[in-house]
Amino acid sequence: MESPHSEVTGAAIRAEGFGLKGPRGWAFRGVGIDAAPGSLVAVAGPSGSGRTCLLLALTGRMKPAEGWAQVAGHQLPRKMAAVRRISALGHVPGVSELDPAFTVAEHLRERVMLQRRYDGSVRALLRSPARRRAESRARIDEALAAAGLDLASLPKRDHTSVRDLERLEALRLTVALALIQRPRLLAVDDTDLKLSDAERAAAWALLRSVADAGTTVLAVCSEAPAEADITVVTTEVGAKDGATNEEGAADAFATTGSA
């Protein structure tokens, strides 16, 4: 069976002097990137230094204030909607999170239904229900395989509640959900948060494999791994009133963002 990435060409990311400012100050500024399609890009820096805002800006979900960036040739901020269509979010707190009350199966079914609604062709809608179910199942299986999530290893297989998942299992699920969209750019926040050394190595191996399969990966972390092709380091840039970079730009996402 084909990988979900066999038809995917990763998005090149280029940026120069890229910056985003919120009501209370700069979230980040002066960022430069030149990442080829299929790169694993680590966004490293201390918590509150604008890492998440950079991830959201490069996926078309927050509007930059200075400099320029292109994602798969789409200029930001002019083509934010186009960038959103080709990118997908894994775990991003407050933006793209798992519902702890849902089971793994419920999350997967919901994502497939949403994907069918937004990108289904007229021809696809005319297919028989049995064929649509088979195609959805195949898409889920491919995404789970790419994310390395073995449902048989979970306490209740796909009926396991999200609240019962280990941190690494939850990360794999969010990656699988994103890959169902077959994005050209996958963005993941807090990649190494609350992981043991072994789990951290497994998480980076997962993202490396996704990038090697063709999808460009943008991953926020506290410390960049050896597996990364490119590392972008964010630093404090002086948000006003004692706010962190992330807090200073929080309102910007409320007005321009979309998960």
Q: Can you walk me through this structure?
A:
The chain has 259 residues and is an alpha/beta fold. The chain has one domain (13-256): P-loop containing nucleotide triphosphate hydrolases (Rossmann fold), CATH 3.40.50. 36% of the residues lie in helices and 20% in strands. The protein has helices spanning 51-58, 80-86, 104-119, 122-125, 129-147, 167-179, 197-212, 245-248, 250-256, and strands spanning 13-22, 25-35, 40-44, 66-71, 74-76, 87-89, 185-188, 216-221, 230-233. It has a five-stranded parallel beta sheet, sandwiched between helices. It starts with 12 loop residues before the first strand and ends with a helix.
Key phrases:
ABC_transporter-like_ATP-bd, P-loop_NTPase, ABC transporter domain-containing protein, ABC_transpr_LolD-like, 9 strands, alpha/beta, globular, single chain, Rossmann fold, 20% strand, 259 residues, disordered N terminus, five-stranded parallel sheet
Total count of strands = 9
CATH architecture: 3-Layer(aba) Sandwich
- Round the mean pLDDT to the nearest integer and report it: 88
CATH superfamily: P-loop containing nucleotide triphosphate hydrolases
InterPro entries: ABC_transporter-like_ATP-bd (IPR003439), ABC_transpr_LolD-like (IPR015854), P-loop_NTPase (IPR027417)
Protein name: ABC transporter domain-containing protein
Pfam families: ABC_tran
Organism: Streptomyces violascens
Write the layout of secondary structure elements.
Blueprint lengths: L12 E10 L2 E11 L4 E5 L6 H8 L7 E6 L2 E3 L3 H7 E3 L14 H16 L2 H4 L3 H19 L19 H13 L5 E4 L8 H16 L3 E6 L8 E4 L11 H4 L1 H7 L3
Helix pairs in contact: 3-6, 5-6
Pfam families: ABC_tran
Organism: Streptomyces violascens
Protein name: ABC transporter domain-containing protein
